[in-house]
Amino acid sequence: MAMMTVEIIPMKQKIFAFRCDDGQCIPYDIVCNKNPDCSDESDEQHCNINECRNIRMNQCEHRCIDTLTSFRCECNSGFQLMSDRRACRGEEISSHCDARFSVYS
């Protein structure tokens, strides 16, 4: 049986990647740097716009998180983001106290 030699090439991995509109992926840290890195230049579109400032623009039910070129919605604890990626569903924790733990003054 012949031994196989495998060469390991160290690579600097980028944790976050940006997917261009044409499907190409680039490192997130070069998005919105005023230099088009995507062949369709989608990494330089919608830069420096805070969509979270206007609820009509983002329509997030709970929280809006601004990103370099867009935004994402997040839900409060106990809720899950729906398939429309804007609405949240789940059971809200009741604000009523359990009588066993009531404190009387």
TrEMBL record:
Disulphide connectivity of cysteines: 20-38, 32-47
Keywords: Disulfide bond, EGF-like domain, Lipoprotein, Membrane, Receptor, Repeat, Transmembrane, Transmembrane helix
Residue ranges constituting the EGF-like domain according to the UniProt record: 73-88
Positions in coiled-coil regions: none
CDD domains reported in the protein's UniProt record: EGF_CA, LDLa
Keyword hit for Electron transport: no
Annotated GO MF terms: calcium ion binding
Name of the molecule in the record: Low-density lipoprotein receptor-related protein 2
